[in-house]
Amino acid sequence: MIKYNLLCKKCDLSFDSWFASSKEFDKLKKKKMINCHSCGSLQVEKNLMAPKLINKTLIYKNEKKDLLRHQKIRKKMSEYQKFIKNNFDYVGENFAYEARSIHYNNKNRKKGIYGTASKKDLKELKEEGIDAQLIPWVENENN
Ligand SMILES: [Zn+2]
Question: How far is the CA of 43 from the centre of ligand 1 (A)?
């Protein structure tokens, strides 16, 4: 099972839906069996990211070039990075500090954050119960 966050192009409603697989989503979409919960429009698109990355979940940035050898993955990653840049605040080296300030001070941020952190930072954050997502990242990518 896979959960997609779907977005209605007509009324901007975003909602979650479960599918057996990504193939099933495509199939249903082709058959016009996916429509908006609110307005019934068929102009429903997959939101790029799983919803669990939105809100307070934090992102850890890392460079892992090995992962990006395949064209397909590269493309996905660059879409992913674009999404993150648009929807998360970049905090750079202050990642661990900012993550803690959100966690301990209940600091209200509209967006999640992403930035760099060392392995040690990440381990410590984990021990403190702070959820940080590890993602591969490539800088200055030229297609
Ligand atoms: Zn709608």
Answer: 8
What type of residue sits at position 39? C
Q: Distance from CA of residue 11 to its chain's centroid? A: 22
Q: Give the Cα separation of 62 and 81 in Å (integer).
A: 12
Per-residue pLDDT in tens (0 to 9) along the chain, 143 residues: 778 888 898 998 888 888 888 889 999 999 999 999 899 999 998 876 543 333 344 555 555 555 556 666 677 777 778 888 888 888 888 888 888 888 887 766 777 888 888 888 888 888 988 878 777 676 654 44
Q: Where are the domains of the chain?
A: 2-46, 56-127
CA of 7 to the centre of ligand 1 (A): 8
| Nearby residues for ligand 1 (ion, Cβ within 5 Å) | 8, 10-11, 13, 36, 38-39, 41
